[in-house]
Request: fold
Amino acid sequence: MFDIKLLGSTKGDIYGDFNDISFDVNGDVDVISGTDRVRQDIVKILITVSGNLPYVNYGTFLPKLVNSRYTDEKLLSSVNDEVIAAIQYLVSNEESIDGDEIIDEITTLEISFEEREVLINLVATTLSRKELNLEITL
Reply:
C-alpha cells in the first residue's frame, strides 16, 4: 500500500512541518510504502490533534503540549498512554496485507521531558520482523 510522502526537517522524526507534499525530480508526487509508510503513519497520528472530523478518534493531545513547561511526572504516564492508544488505532485500522506495514508489537517506549520538549523513543516490530526506531521530539 502506498501513501503520499510528506516533508519534514531532519532533527528527529517529528521535528518541523509535516504539512507539505514531497515531489520527486520529475515533479511527480513522491509515495512511500513498507516500514517508511508505517513510520510516517506513526508520526502523523502523533502530531494530529484528536477530535477533528471526520476521524474523531484519530490523533492525540500531544500537539497541545508544544512549548509548554513540563514539571508533572503524571504527564509522562499520559503521554505513554496516548502513544499506545495511537498505535492501537493504527493497528486496528490498517488495511495493508504487507507484513512490513503491520505493527506487531511495541518493544520499547520511553518518554522523557527536557525543558519545553517531550522526547519519545519508540521501537516497534512489524509482522515481517522488521524493526522501526523512532526518536520523536515534540
The chain has one domain: 3-137. The mean pLDDT is 82. The two ends are 28 Å apart (CA to CA). The longest helix spans residues 74-93.
